[in-house]
Design brief:
The structure is a single chain. This protein is of the alpha+beta class and 602 residues long. It is built from 21 helices and nine strands. The radius of gyration is 29 Å and the shape is globular. The termini are far apart.
């Protein structure tokens, strides 16, 4: 988020003092925030204020570090004030939609912090470039020079701080060897850790400013190395598109992460293409191989983005909006601009990919606008997702028993909680009583996972018995401790599977529950169901489909427990009594796969 460099190679002493002072003050302020939260002084009213202060303290000092000795004083004051207002507003809004009773920290969430950092980095260089050229849109050479150089400076500053902490931890360990423990304990104290981290980060920013020529050299080497990865990625992308007509899209959709992988591949191609392009075509740049790789890349990005967009549209049509899908839509919008612009640059007459420059500038402004919309009331993902999911419920696109009430409770912030309370109070409309009952049950939960669901009716809808059988009497009705509940990881839309069969030959059935990779075996004794073992063997994604289709069997030799055969794979029951020498259960699913060593040979 900075673009500073001294042409004469040496920053002035006042600038150095100012930067270190800003870093130290930032650390003290972060320590103060930590103490504010630590002493439990944050509630629903003060949470917006805390988040606003946190965002302000996290980002404004970094902007000032980069703006010193780079921006004109008037521009720095205006830009710093604008940044302060925007990040504080984003933080305050985040605090208003957060749910304080979920046990989460009150600090701004990772998406807000990460995307704000990205948006500020882009916006800062748009401002510094314009200020340097004294016009609203700077030259592309100016943007390229400052952005890539400062990207390297940021990376070096982070590595510098990481090296500092490695040395501090090593020093603490050395003193601990001779019984002096206060050194290691001190470096872990927040009053030391926060100021030390931010002060040395500011120092790293200054040192990379002083050694600008060294940074420029590192940047050149990094761009050169990245540029020669472009042909590799271009061949991979082209090969994927060539193979796709022969494999079809079904395998792609079965991964359930096709859109994110395709967009990530497109993003990698965009970065590598810019590394190869640098400041455009010159007398000795780029080599012919990179020119052709750049042309291929400019063409293949568009189909990758188109397939990702198509998959995202299908997913939203089937299951509605979620915050992750809204982030995906935002990324797709930006990717479409890049893909169209880069494809046009390939066929545009003139120097090699020259129109790429215009695309990059337009996309940079678009990214900033999209990020502002996502983290403000304009397009808040939680609000949009909640509204869409409620609309699907009301129009019958999803039935009350399949609706994800826990999404509203734990993943949609305050908009989700408000909507869930509204559903719990619903009196009229189709299925109003059932919806209200399920919503009230979700409101009563304290955690999405690891907590037993008390309603037998709801428990029956979380798991299906392979072959269409039924659970033994008492299994679903039993009251379980939270983390012993067989169905703790089952939920609507991601049902668990169960096998009900006699595994020990006593004419009474046992139950095997397949839940998120865990296969637990239960037996009833004295009217109480308890866990007696776990199925060994690798967990396959197709197990659920095989069980749903009835592709399972139980062998006829209970010794002491029969094996369960799923889709032709025999899974052995490892009893709970198979303890490790230290008395612990160990990882039975993994241990059972280890073969004994061969006998020694003389």
């Amino acid at each position: 988020m900075f673009a500073g460099e001294t042409d004469h190679g040496q920053a002035s002493r006042p600038i150095a003092i100012a930067r270190v002072a800003i870093g130290f003050a930032q650390g003290l302020a972060l320590y103060g925030l930590n103490e504010w939260e630590k002493h439990g002084l944050i509630d629903g009213v003060s949470s917006p204020l805390f988040c606003a202060c946190a965002m302000l303290i996290l980002f404004l000092p970094v902007v000032l570090l980069g703006g010193l000795d780079t921006l004109r004083t008037r521009t720095l004051v205006i830009w710093g004030a604008a940044v302060a207002v925007v990040v504080a507003a984003l933080g305050a809004y985040h605090g208003t939609i957060a749910v304080p009773d979920l046990g989460a920290e009150h600090w701004p969430g990772p998406p807000l912090v990460i995307f704000t950092a990205v948006g500020l980095f882009i916006a800062h260089h748009l401002v510094t470039g314009a200020d340097a050229d004294r016009r609203w849109i700077a030259s592309y050479d100016r943007y390229f020079e400052q952005t890539w150089k400062d990207g390297v400076r940021l990376a070096l500053a982070v590595l510098f701080v990481g090296a500092l902490w490695l040395l501090l931890w090593l020093g603490g360990a050395l003193f601990d060897l001779i019984g002096i423990k206060w050194v290691g304990e001190t470096i872990q104290k927040p009053w030391f850790a926060f100021p030390a981290t931010t002060t040395f980060f500011a120092l790293a920013i200054h040192l990379t400013d002083v050694r600008a020529s060294l940074v420029r050299g590192i940047r050149t080497v990094a761009l050169t190395l990245l540029s020669w990865l472009l042909p590799v990625m271009a061949v991979i992308g082209a090969g994927f598109l060539i193979a796709l007509p022969f494999t079809g899209l079904t395998l792609l959709w079965d991964t359930k992460s096709a859109a994110s992988i395709l967009l990530s591949a497109a993003a990698a191609l965009i970065v590598l293409l810019n590394a190869a392009y640098q400041e455009g075509e010159a007398e000795d740049h780029p080599p012919v191989a990179l020119k052709w790789a750049g042309r291929v890349t400019g063409v293949i990005i568009a189909p990758l983005v188109a397939i990702a967009a198509y998959g995202l549209i299908l997913r939203i049509g089937q299951y509605g909006l979620t915050p992750d899908r809204i982030y995906g839509v935002a990324c797709t919008i930006v990717a479409v601009v890049y893909s169209v612009g880069y494809a046009a640059s390939v066929f545009w007459p003139g120097p090699w990919l020259k129109r790429l420059e215009v695309t990059n500038v337009i996309a940079a402004h678009l990214v900033v606008a999209v990020l502002l919309a996502l983290f403000s009331p304009l397009a808040n993902p939680s609000r949009l997702s909640v509204n869409d999911q409620l609309a699907r419920l009301d129009r019958g696109a999803v039935t009350p028993d399949k609706f994800d009430y826990l999404f509203l409770r734990f993943e949609a912030g305050k908009p989700g909680m408000d909507a869930l309370k509204g559903l719990a109070a619903r009196k009229t409309g189709p299925n109003a009583a059932e919806i209200a009952r399920r919503a009230a049950s979700a409101l009563a939960r304290k955690a999405r996972y690891g907590e037993a669901t008390t309603s037998v009716v709801e428990r029956k809808e979380l798991v299906r018995v392979a072959g269409g059988g039924a659970f033994p009497v008492g299994f679903l009705e039993q009251t379980w401790k939270s983390f012993e509940d067989p169905l703790q990881n089952c939920e609507p839309g991601r049902l668990c599977d169960a096998v009900v069969a006699d595994l020990d030959g006593d004419a009474s059935p046992e139950v095997v529950v397949f839940a998120m990779g865990d296969r637990r075996v239960y037996r009833q004794a004295g009217g109480v169901w308890t866990r007696i073992g776990t199925l060994s063997g690798s967990y396959c994604d197709k197990d659920g489909e095989a069980l749903k289709a009835g592709q399972f069997a139980v062998n006829a030799d209970p010794n002491p427990l029969a094996d369960v055969v799923v889709a032709g794979r025999r899974l052995r029951v490892v009893p709970e009594s198979d303890k490790c020498p230290d008395g612990t259960a160990g990882d039975v699913a993994i241990v059972s796969e280890i073969k004994p060593p061969p006998p020694e040979t003389k």
